[in-house]
Design goal:
Protein name (chain B): Carbohydrate ABC transporter membrane protein 1, CUT1 family (TC 3.A.1.1.-)
Structural class of chain B: mainly alpha
Helix content of chain B: over 70%
Number of helices of chain B: 11
CATH architecture of the largest domain in chain A: Orthogonal Bundle
Family (chain B): Belongs to the binding-protein-dependent transport system permease family.
CATH superfamily of chain B: MetI-like
Radius of gyration of chain B: 24 Å
Largest sheet of chain A: none
Largest interface: A-B, 90 and 92 residues
Number of helices of chain A: 13
Helix content of chain A: over 70%
Pfam family, one (chain B): BPD_transp_1
Strand content of chain B: under 5%
Order of helices and strands of chain B: HHHHHHHHHHH
Distance between the termini of chain B: 46 Å
Keywords (chain B): Cell membrane, Membrane, Transmembrane, Transmembrane helix, Transport
Subcellular location (chain B): Cell membrane
CATH architecture of chain B: Orthogonal Bundle
Number of domains of chain A: 2
CATH class of chain B: Mainly Alpha
Shape of chain B: globular
Number of strands of chain A: 0
Oligomer: heterodimer
């Protein structure tokens, strides 16, 4: 029985997707205009594109430096989170019958309910005291703060894996490290994709932690730079929009390239987790 | 077997220590400072429950709670209704399914702060300009500059940004519903609404619970949206609790006082989460 296409749903979804696209379209089109073209019409497609706003934004905000900083934080964060969080979860998932591991599981999970504002003020003092109020400190905090959610996701997944392969490997003389690296970690691949996406989004787009910890201009991440330059943009919004588009561009490009993988990764995680 | 378990301990102990040092310790310090008159540096003394008593009479804190709850409740409701509708649409037999799904998830990929600045400029400059050109009165004023309407601007940004994620969660829920159930329902003559009410919704109820709890918790911490759109203004009309703690704690010399505020916030957030989980899960069982 072949169902007919639901044109109502198609039409409504089309309408909805305009609401998603319009703000981004506005930002893009305005960023490509000079003041004269803006005066003529804000939203019409101009007859010639002006890239001067982009060059100016790159120079003014030192774009490539902040791009580098964001990558410097995000890439190691994702790599270490994948290894460390899955390893911790593996140890917990296979030893839940022991008091220590059970305690650890509930310790991490219950931390999800502690609002960040409670930690925020003492944390800034602590990080400054041990000279970690910099990009490396950010990496450390993202890895540590990723534990609660990821332990929840990973442990739920690892528990569903049969133990028989591990038991066979033990008989063959493999130790726990080898089992983790050669058997468990590869099997975690689908869930690793989910964790990698969510961790990357968090580290790349986060604003509050960099705002709290980074005061040095040359260490600022992309969102923080937009915040710092906000007052200088306010009169020239073509320039502002050019800078915002530049700030959003890396994630948009990643999304365009890996869109299918990202969406299936997020959806898979939500069913298994 | 003994050797095996010692490796398992070593796998977790460093993470345990780091988590304690960078998460639990500052949280405990926060609770400790809430009973002092610490201003962020120098000497301090204990003041008992004075900070908490003062909070009860603090109009600014009260307003921040009212705004934060109004924003969080309204946003949670709108986001979840919209996400469920979009997910139902995406799960129906439609054209360009993958393209639509991709478009709806775009906002979640993007920095709330940066998108917020774009929305800020649109609300402040572009919409009023369009409004004036078309002669539409409501559009021609900047809603972010209006004491009574600014919070709606924050809701619009929040809904635009986070609906995509919830849509995916609902969509993966909908895909767990077996098609045979709908076939049977159709044979029994059940309409679309009956199918939704008696099959779809009960089966995706766990996703509904998770989504409501996650949305609400996220929106109660709202910060980036407000930094980008209003900085808490006009006046203090959109000052959220996180923003108040940030402003007062770092800039206002109220370190201890705002940690007390954060302790109260902790209790509030905990109670709401537990309440939601209890009530929503009970409803799941009822079906």
């Amino acid at each position: 029985m072949k169902e007919k296409t639901n044109w109502w749903a198609t039409g409504l979804l089309l309408l909805g997707s305009f609401i998603i696209i319009i703000p981004l379209y506005m930002a893009l089109i305005v960023s490509l205009k000079n003041p004269q073209q803006l005066a003529e019409s804000i939203l019409a497609v101009p007859d010639s594109f002006q890239f001067r706003n982009y060059l100016e934004a790159i120079k003014l905000t030192n774009y490539f430096q902040s791009l580098k900083n964001s990558a410097y934080v995000t890439i190691p964060t994702v790599a270490i989170v994948l290894v460390v969080n899955s390893m911790v979860s593996y140890a917990i998932a296979r030893n839940m019958h022991k008091k220590y591991f059970k305690f650890l599981y509930f310790y991490f999970i219950s931390a999800m309910f502690i609002p960040f504002p409670l930690i925020m003020l003492p944390l800034v003092k602590e990080m400054a005291m041990i000279s970690l109020d910099n990009l490396n400190g950010l990496i450390l905090l993202y890895i540590v703060y990723a534990l609660p959610l990821n332990v929840f996701i990973y442990v739920g997944y690892i528990k569903t894996l049969p133990k028989s392969i591990e038991e066979a490997a033990i008989i063959d003389g493999a130790n726990v490290w080898q089992i983790f690296w050669r058997i468990i970690f590869p099997v975690l691949k689908p869930i690793n994709a989910t964790v990698a996406i969510l961790t990357a989004l968090k580290a790349w787009n986060d604003f509050l932690l960099p705002l709290l910890m980074i005061s040095d201009r040359s260490s600022m991440t992309l969102p923080l730079v937009q915040h710092v330059f906000q007052s200088q943009f306010s009169t020239d919004y073509s320039l502002a929009f050019a800078s915002y588009i530049l700030a959003l561009l890396p994630m948009l490009l990643v999304y365009i390239i890996a869109q299918k993988k990202i969406i299936s990764g997020v959806m898979r995680g939500s069913v298994k987790g | 077997m003994k050797k095996t378990s010692s490796v398992f301990y070593w796998m977790t102990i460093p993470a345990f220590i780091l988590f304690f040092v960078f998460h639990t310790l500052p949280a405990l310090q926060g609770i400790f400072y809430s009973f002092t008159d610490y201003i962020g540096f120098g000497d301090y003394g204990f003041v008992g429950f004075r900070n908490f008593i003062n909070l009860l009479n603090d109009g600014r804190a009260f307003d921040a709670y009212i705004f934060t709850f109004k924003f969080a409740i309204v946003s949670t409701i709108i986001v979840n209704i919209l996400s469920l509708l979009i997910a139902l649409g995406l799960n129906a037999k439609i054209k360009f399914k993958d393209t639509f799904r991709a478009i709806y998830f775009v906002p979640y990929m993007l920095s709330i702060l940066v998108v917020g600045y774009i929305f800020n400029h649109i609300f402040t400059f572009i919409l009023p300009e369009i409004g004036r050109n078309l002669g539409i009165d409501i559009l021609s004023k900047n809603i972010l500059g209006n004491m009574d309407l600014a919070w709606i601007g924050v809701v619009i940004l929040a809904v635009w940004n986070s609906s995509g994620f919830n849509t995916l969660l609902y969509l993966s829920g909908l895909q767990t519903v077996p098609d045979e159930l709908y076939e049977v329902a159709k044979i029994d003559g059940a309409g679309k609404w009956d199918q939704f009410k008696h099959i779809t919704f009960p089966l995706i109820a766990p996703f509904f619970t998770i989504n409501i709890v996650i949305s609400m918790r996220g929106f109660l911490m709202v910060f980036d949206h407000i930094m980008a759109l209003t900085q808490g203004g006009p006046g203090r009309a959109t000052e959220s609790i996180t923003l108040l703690i940030y402003n007062g704690g770092f800039m206002g010399g109220e370190f201890a006082y705002q940690t007390a505020n954060a302790v109260v916030f902790l209790i509030v957030v905990l109670s709401i989460s537990l309440f939601q989980i209890k009530v929503l899960q009970k409803r799941e069982v009822d079906y």
